[in-house]
Amino acid sequence: xxxxxxxxxxxxxxxxxxxxxxxxxxxxxxxxxxxxxxxxxxxxxxxxxxxxxxxxxxxxxxxxxxxxxxxxxxxxxxxxxxxxxxxxxxxxxxxxxxxxxxxxxxxxxxxxxxxxxxxxxxxxxxxxxxxxxxxxxxxxxxxxxxxxxxxxxxxxxxxxxxxxxxxxxxxxxxxxxxxxxxxxxxxxxxxxxxxxxxxxxxxxxxxxxxxxxxxxxxxxxxxxxxxxxxxxxxxxxxxxxxxxxxxxxxxxxxxxxxxxxxxxxxxxxxxxxxxxxxxxxxxxxxxxxxxxxxxxxxxxxxxxxxxxxxxxxxxxxxxxxxxxxxxxxxxxxxxxxxxxxxxxxxxxxxxxx
Length: 353
What we know:
Layout (H helix, E strand, L loop, with lengths): L22 E8 L21 E8 L4 E2 L4 E2 L9 E5 L2 E9 L14 E10 L7 E3 L11 E5 L2 E5 L12 E5 L4 E4 L19 E3 L4 E6 L4 E6 L4 E6 L9 E4 L2 E5 L14 E5 L4 E3 L1 E5 L10 E6 L2 E8 L4 E11 L5 E14 L5 E3 L3
InterPro entries: F-box/kelch-repeat_ARATH, Kelch-typ_b-propeller
């Protein structure tokens, strides 16, 4: 991808030539004034769409919120999951209350969608296009893209107990197929996939956590088989990332962590299948707002992102991690560990390309 060199943000290229992440693309749902989040107010009397989905970018080094990159078609739904593969961005599913541009024409009825939209940022003039719909309507599915395929897990309609808890899209063949269910285990409910799955690309597998019994499984993309990595893994966090052989997790602050700050930062060795000791050399400043995402910026530098709705701003925390020779994880806050950027957006979601 090309290096972004100006404030115009006229494309999605946000990595420098060394591959280090420079900015985070994000979507915002722009609602009209006076919207009160109820079905009756979901669209104005004139029948026009009540929101628009805009793509922008947050520059991490300059702490700037960029101008609009692109706007999705009005049929795009809220809470769709975005994934990037090669030069395309795919947005999968979402939900709505049935506004006048609902693709399913289910007006004034809350429901999930199976719609797919994609954008080729190598050919930006072509705009957004409709893709082949998923087999099952999904709201915020856990999804990753790798090796010419897009995998979508969980988040089916309420009460869904069918056999399509997960599916895979073959980009070249333009085809969705069901994924096999995970192995039967005590208390495991296939539809209980936790938000956010982790792509362990070096081992061609996807790490999937099931909240019904707090187990951790691996889906092997070569051969389509499942492996139980840890039947008693424990809690899972959406703010998680894999770097090498280690998965890092950052959990929201709650009374259990009130006296220890980022003691809720944990590290798990995905090969040895065990937790590592974590030691903070210096802790970053924290605020009691749920963490939404964690990214690896390169060279052991981490970025934790959250959206402070009450203050109308993005907050992001940066720190560095190092694994010692005896496999203890040392974490140290950057000198300016927390930065804020006015968001001006009621709802946002980020994506690393």
